[in-house]
């Protein structure tokens, strides 16, 4: 009888020990949702592959959480494009939309808090042509700042 009790105790101990290494996995051995690794957004600190950048790799993310305006690949371009309007653009980029895309064209917007019609910025990026555009609407007047050519801004992308 003592032998059976000792054997049972050892079996339970071995099972507990072997299962401890499987913590966070389901019956198939894959990680459960609490322990699954998620990819971090591409930020200024990581260098994406050629042809990819902080905008193209982060559809669904918000520009401020990614520090898009500080990104080494885009900050000088934003400043050059907006010129004297750059500081006002950043100051009024309070309420923003996440990055969305249609084909190779990516879009995100930002506007003045509690007064979007007073100052609204739309950023368009054409990845196929590495072309950046800013559309700034200020007090009912719209201006387009195009790096190379104006990007075709489709109605469906406007609605996203």
Count of helix runs: 5
Assembly type of the chains comes to single chain
**Rg, Å, rounded:** 25 Å
Give the tally of β-strands.
6
What general outline do the C-alpha atoms trace?
Answer: globular
Q: What order do the SSEs take from the amino end to the carboxyl end, as H and E?
A: HHHHEEEEEEH
Low-confidence segments, given as residue ranges, are 1-38
- Helix content range: 25-40%
Mean pLDDT comes to 80
- In percent, how much strand structure appears in the residues? 15-25%
> Which structural class best describes the helix and strand composition?
alpha+beta
How far the N terminus sits from the C terminus, by CA atoms, comes to 73 Å
Biggest sheet overview: 6 strands, antiparallel
Protein name: Lipoprotein
Keywords: Signal
Signal peptide: 1-18
Organism: Ravibacter arvi
């Amino acid at each position: 009888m003592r032998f059976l009790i000792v054997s049972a105790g050892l079996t339970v101990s071995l099972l507990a020990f072997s299962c401890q290494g499987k913590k966070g996995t389901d019956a198939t051995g894959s990680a459960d949702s609490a322990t699954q690794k998620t990819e971090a957004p591409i930020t200024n600190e990581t260098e994406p592959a050629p042809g990819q950048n902080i905008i193209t790799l982060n559809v669904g993310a918000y520009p401020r959480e990614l520090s898009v305006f500080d990104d080494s690949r885009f900050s000088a371009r934003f400043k050059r494009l907006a010129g004297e309007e750059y500081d006002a653009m950043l100051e009024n980029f309070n309420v923003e939309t996440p990055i969305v895309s249609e084909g190779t064209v990516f879009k995100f917007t930002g506007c003045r808090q509690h007064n979007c019609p007073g100052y609204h910025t739309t950023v368009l990026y054409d990845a196929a042509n590495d072309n950046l555009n800013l559309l700034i609407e200020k007090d009912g007047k719209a201006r387009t700042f195009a790096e190379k050519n104006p990007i075709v801004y489709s109605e469906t992308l406007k609605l996203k």
